[in-house]
Amino acid sequence: MDKEYFAHETAVIDEGCRIGKGTKIWHFSHIMTNCIIGERCNIGQNVVIGPEVKIGNNVKIQNNVSVFKGVTLENGVFCGPSMVFTNVYNPRSYIPRMEEIRTTTVKEGASLGANCTIVCGHTIGKFAFVGAGAVVLRDVPDYALVKGVPARVVGWMCECGTKLRFAGNRSKCNKCRKEYILTRGNVERCKNGKVSRQSIEVI
């Protein structure tokens, strides 16, 4: 039976992995034991997906990224080239600490810019945007734009990837016209003038 996904001949896929229809895995990448990868993902060149990692649908992982055990990527996440995840907070080469893995979750639609670093144990909110080269040391709110070392909230982003401009506590995207409300430092999308609290099934 033909596979429903594409893997380049140089890619290595270990036993026990589940890979969704339409996913593409490119040169020299390694998908380790018992990974779950959704449909229509694009796994770039020289990518390592650690054991038991869960990745949703429509995820794009650019070249030279390692997604270590303990990391979960929800639907529609973008990982820029050479960005970094960690999974142990205080590693030493001579002290085994795999039982001390701190989990990291990247929520639906979030974008992680090239060369950014996500220190383990944090959640990146849905449709958040981490700027290139930023170092994330704390949770990132939904829709937040964070930059710098350490990363700080410097603005808010629409689901389409356009920076939002707020008048008071309301914003309408200049590009796609989606509407948002800012309340106590958190942004939520509005639908028909009301805040949308609809949950989205991810994996």
Question: What features would you describe in this structure?
Answer:
This protein is mainly beta and about 200 residues long. The chain has one domain: UDP N-Acetylglucosamine Acyltransferase, domain 1 (3 Solenoid). It is about 0% helix and about 35% strand. The protein contains no helices and 26 strands. The strands form five sheets. Strands 1-4-7-10-13-16-19-21-22 form a nine-stranded mixed β-sheet, with no helix packed on it. About 35% of the residues are buried.
Kindly summarize this structure in a few lines.
The protein is mostly beta strands and 203 residues long. It is built from no helices and 26 strands. The chain has strands at residues 6-7, 12-13, 18-19, 24-25, 30-31, 36-37, 42-43, 48-49, 54-55, 60-61, 66-67, 71-73, 78-79, 84-85, 104-106, 111-112, 117-118, 123-124, 129-130, 135-136, 144-147, 152-156, 170-172, 179-183, 186-191, 194-195.
